[in-house]
Amino acid sequence: MSGLAEWVSMNNILQTIHSPADIKKLTIPQLTQLAEEIRERLIVGVSKTGGHIGPNLGVVELTLAMHYVFDTPKDSFVFDVSHQAYVHKLLTGRQEQFHTIRQPGGLNGFMLRTESKHDCYGAGHAGTSLSAALGMAVARDMSGGSEHIVALAGDAAFTNGISFEALNNIAAQTKRLIIVLNDNAWSIDKNVGAIAEYLHKIVTNPTVSNLHDRAAGLLEKYGGKTARHVVRKAEEAAKGLIGPGTLFEEFGLSYFGPIDGHNLPLLIETFKFLKTQNKPVVLHAITQKGRGFQPALEKQKKFHGLGPFDAETGETKSAGQKTYSEIFAETLTKLATANEKVVAITAAMPNGTALDLFRPHHPKRYFDVGIAEEHAVIFAAGMATKGYKPFCAIYSTFLQRAFDPIIHDVCLQNLPVVFCLDRGGLSGDDGPTHHGLFDISYLRGVPNIIHMVPKDEDELADMMYTAMLHDGPSAIRYPRGTGPGVAVKEQPVALTIGKAEVVQDGSDVAIFGLGAMLPEAARLAQMLEREGISAAVINPRFAKPIDSECVAEYGKRCGLIVTFEDHVLAGGFGSAVLETLNEQEVQVPVVRVGWPDQFIEHGKVDALRLKYGLTAEAALEKARPYLAAMESRRMALR
């Protein structure tokens, strides 16, 4: 047994916590010990499953204090993003299942309403907590309820426009709402922009720092009576620095803090005080992301969220080859070196999109706009009007948030913005909030845009080069993680827009394998050939415009078409094939293989594909009736 695992087995306060009611029975020293046990449990547990370790290590005391003072599920905790809710899960009857987090059939890595009555609101995207909490508070007020609504949002969430839309409405629509600003100066990378600088000025005010040092002593001497004094004095110091009122007070919210987000007694007494307030309030708590685990403190970006790691050293296993994200960043760096008009834009995801590899080479052409996807897209559109070629690297699931700017600002004006959709397809362990399964559907109906899907790393580079040369909007979707391992040639080539690649010719069945699903298409072809059936394998390359000539040709020649895609079937590539055949007046049966019309749970990609029939074997079974009909027609003609 490792040293950490042995430590966990010897300390058992956590094992006595079966619900939040058990927390309220503990003394402050016991709560302090419980905080350390939770940290060790997080480190040991997440080291085996992977997950968001850094954010959770930073909110241990905050979460403990919230559960000590408030009463869920009567009171509601709304976690922004909710990747920092592991501690909440441990304290609400799920510690025995914690080893299953992000595993098939196990606990979800985010808040999930169907998982527990203590999870009042599901989330996976940033910036939603304030609006949701306000909606709950207004509903409570209308119903005459007395429960408390507490929103816990990181400082990075305040770079998101939705947060400010909510702030604009809170004071006018409710008299009781508690917002906890969990300030650790990070999202995944360092926070950027005016809001981050504003909060930094408050935190680094010498008077505020002095109050932090005095807070513990005041509490020890005078008890809970000092909580109001401490937060008010800190507030006054912040006001003296910034002007006649803080940003939050300009929105009509009473601001308290900043206070030490790891000082349990101070947090508890402050929450008790805030419960008595009949006005919307903001508590500014300073926390340390990764607290208690030195590797997480030293490598903040890496330990925001990662796969399994060594619980003692923090070391992780190398993937052994470059990911699609890394190939994207390296290719973009080369394109930018050759073309001074190429710029890179990310919405607070330089690490996830690998643009942190681009940044050192072209720092003046790298832009991190914070968690603000809508702004990122319109910002790119503005640059494009001045002759620049913006590459917007945004996860497929997060680009959904910018759907209107894509249509209104980019495509309507036919501007040459390139959308690089990382995590295009299933994002296994993170689950339905992060699966990129809808981008073909939500982009295919928009005029002017082209949509490309590479079969391997080298084709990704070619598509990026094609997009750079294209005088209009374009999108490229590529999967999470590594690809087939194909070497990228030194100089990419431009692809003919809307032209598919015939990998293997055939006359009986035509199989279109889009992007990462091409290997399954090839496997199906091999299975058919073993049964004496001639199968063509086609790499479509383009989800839009689809190669209508290729589709029509094989539709006329073959007795069956099969399409594979790592995308929902509704409105996806297979739908485009059906529409094309209809336009060409070609009548041929089509078997579509893709994700069904439902949200897909978290789990391992291969296992989920097997479960939902995204395999060559499942496709063959779906094709059997048509293959039998084809054979019957052949026999009749003999």
Count of domains: 3
Uncertain spans? 4-9, 238-245
Give the C-level CATH assignment of the largest domain. Answer: Alpha Beta
CATH architecture of the largest domain: 3-Layer(aba) Sandwich
Distance between the termini: 72 Å
Order of strands across the widest beta sheet?
Answer: 7-6-8-9-11-10-15
Biggest pleated-sheet summary: 7 strands, mixed
Shape: globular
Q: Give the CATH topology of the largest domain.
A: Rossmann fold
Our estimate of the beta-strand percent is: 5-15%
**Helix fraction?**
40-55%
Structural classification:
alpha/beta
Total number of β-strand segments? 17
Provide mean pLDDT, rounded. Answer: 89
The whole-angstrom Rg is 27 Å
CATH superfamily of the largest domain: Thiamin diphosphate (ThDP)-binding fold, Pyr/PP domains
Number of continuous helical runs: 25
Describe this structure in words.
By secondary structure, the protein is an alpha/beta fold. It has three domains: 3-298, Rossmann fold, CATH 3.40.50.970; 324-477, 3-Layer(aba) Sandwich (Rossmann fold), CATH 3.40.50; 501-637, Rossmann fold. Helix 21 (518-530) crosses helix 25 (616-637). The chain starts with a helix and ends with a helix. The model is unreliable at 4-9 and 238-245 (pLDDT under 50).
Summarize the structure.
The protein has 25 helices and 17 strands.
Using brief descriptors, characterize the structure shown.
alpha/beta, Rossmann fold, seven-stranded mixed sheet, five-stranded parallel sheet, 17 strands, 43% helix
